[in-house]
Amino acid sequence: MSIDILINSRSYEVRLALVENGVLTEFHMQRPMEKGLKGNIYRGRVVRVLPGMQAAFVDIGLERTGFLYVDDVHITEKDIENRMLDRDSFPVIDELSPVPGEISSRVHGSNIEDLLTEGQDVLVQVSKDPIGTKGARLTCHITLPCRNLVFIPLTDHIGVSRKIENEEIRTILKEQIEEIRPQGTGFIVRTVAEHAKVEELEADMEFLMLLWDEIRDLARSSKSPALVYEDLDITLRSVRDLFTNDVDRLIIDDKAAHEKLLHFVRAFAPQLQDRISLYQGDSPLFEAHGIEVEINRAIEKKVWLRSGGYIIIESTEALSVIDVNTGRFVGKNDLNETIFKTNIEAAKEIAYQLRLRNIGGIIIIDFIDMEDEFHREELFTTFKEAVKKDKSRINILKLSEFGLVQMTRKRNSENLHQMMCEPCHYCAGEGMLKSRRTICYDIFRKLSRNAAKASGNTVTIRVHPRIADMLLKEEELTILQLEQEISKRLVITPAKDLHIEKYEIIWQR
């Protein structure tokens, strides 16, 4: 399987496409004006503690305060002792950011009001970008990723990526980390490090330890709220998070960004620099590889299947619903076989769309109902296999008797639709407008209600041209009857500047 990373870099926007066998499977985007915050570390100040929600709001210098849940709070044994001696005391930044070896953890059964106090300074990291009306999700469980390792400075733990399935390699990697890590520190071995040398692991570890020292020093000297560490931009993150040994090429179309990328790769993954190239074709990079068309399709609600069936994807802030339909597909032999083939094809397409669109939260999939138990089991197995390529954490419940699949997909940032679209200025995101006839009848009722109060003989009605067309043609008889009822002459005036649901009634004296 060929895998390419394509990066379209401009001063106003950087777009990244992960392409597998010529098919766009992941799309990421970063705009300087809307830069993501995930991974950034702040010295923040607790502005409100909410016992009823077991959470706190923390000011990190953004427009909206961040949300810190009780399970994401770190507290040390030293903090507990201080609280026992003085109930009014609370830990300062040093206690919530212990040096390696000073282990902190969630105290079982403790409440948020026992751990945090309003006005307290805390070191927090953004674990989820602000989405919709919600502020950033914060955590005190700091993690610092590098090429081969993820450093967890406040935890005494060694972990290995689940995607490294060979138990012998997992054991060797754990032993190597145990041998070279400082006592009391935590590290997770990333998938890309499956065949890494000890020297490479050691170099990553040394870099991460120095970075953590710098962060702590800056946190101590800063005044809340303050940014103390900013995560890499999308171009460098592509090397750190996506550029595995399975990737054949990384192509970027900006010379300055290409040089920056090579400099980073030479320091952290020199073996990959030969796979990085600068695009110099005549056509734009994404157009030459058919990416632009795929991006535009990825924000449409209706997705057609090859058979002629289709799926509809509807998303709200917390819930997404996907509906499967046979569409133009009529099958060959019997109805059950037609439905089964449509569902199987839809299952694979839905797994692909979830990853491409970065749809997260609660997801309900309404497959076409099937009576055959074997077909139901086959569909569920196919869908579970299809989502295995997805890097996000996914939980799937069994197919219900109504043909529904309930699942969750971890959401760390806005989905593609939220990043590239905004609510319609006509319908305010509702997706529906009042029908033209409904608007006409609203006007009729208002005229009847207020006619007795007006003294003039003529009423001018300014409406959108589409409403005017209906009033003058389909509702012509109603207009004549209404003129007789209210003893007024009605003048319909089309106005292109009006929203289709808005109108003006001018009572002339």
TrEMBL record:
<keyword id="KW-0963">Cytoplasm</keyword>
<dbReference type="GO" id="GO:0004540">
    <property type="term" value="F:RNA nuclease activity"/>
</dbReference>
<feature type="domain" description="S1 motif">
    <location>
        <begin position="37"/>
        <end position="141"/>
    </location>
</feature>
<comment type="similarity">
    <text>Belongs to the RNase E/G family. RNase G subfamily.</text>
</comment>
<dbReference type="GO" id="GO:0006364">
    <property type="term" value="P:rRNA processing"/>
</dbReference>
<keyword id="KW-0699">rRNA-binding</keyword>
<keyword id="KW-0378">Hydrolase</keyword>
<dbReference type="GO" id="GO:0019843">
    <property type="term" value="F:rRNA binding"/>
</dbReference>
<keyword id="KW-0460">Magnesium</keyword>
<dbReference type="Pfam" id="PF10150">
    <property type="entry name" value="RNase_E_G"/>
</dbReference>
<keyword id="KW-0540">Nuclease</keyword>
<dbReference type="InterPro" id="IPR012340">
    <property type="entry name" value="NA-bd_OB-fold"/>
</dbReference>
<dbReference type="InterPro" id="IPR003029">
    <property type="entry name" value="S1_domain"/>
</dbReference>
<keyword id="KW-0698">rRNA processing</keyword>
<dbReference type="GO" id="GO:0046872">
    <property type="term" value="F:metal ion binding"/>
</dbReference>
<dbReference type="InterPro" id="IPR019307">
    <property type="entry name" value="RNA-bd_AU-1/RNase_E/G"/>
</dbReference>
<dbReference type="GO" id="GO:0004519">
    <property type="term" value="F:endonuclease activity"/>
</dbReference>
<keyword id="KW-0479">Metal-binding</keyword>
<protein>
    <recommendedName>
        <fullName>Ribonuclease G</fullName>
    </recommendedName>
</protein>
<dbReference type="GO" id="GO:0016787">
    <property type="term" value="F:hydrolase activity"/>
</dbReference>
<dbReference type="InterPro" id="IPR004659">
    <property type="entry name" value="RNase_E/G"/>
</dbReference>
<keyword id="KW-0255">Endonuclease</keyword>
<keyword id="KW-0819">tRNA processing</keyword>
<keyword id="KW-0820">tRNA-binding</keyword>
<dbReference type="GO" id="GO:0000049">
    <property type="term" value="F:tRNA binding"/>
</dbReference>
<keyword id="KW-0694">RNA-binding</keyword>
<dbReference type="GO" id="GO:0008033">
    <property type="term" value="P:tRNA processing"/>
</dbReference>
<dbReference type="Pfam" id="PF20833">
    <property type="entry name" value="RNase_E_G_Thio"/>
</dbReference>
<dbReference type="InterPro" id="IPR048583">
    <property type="entry name" value="RNase_E_G_thioredoxin-like"/>
</dbReference>
<dbReference type="GO" id="GO:0005737">
    <property type="term" value="C:cytoplasm"/>
</dbReference>
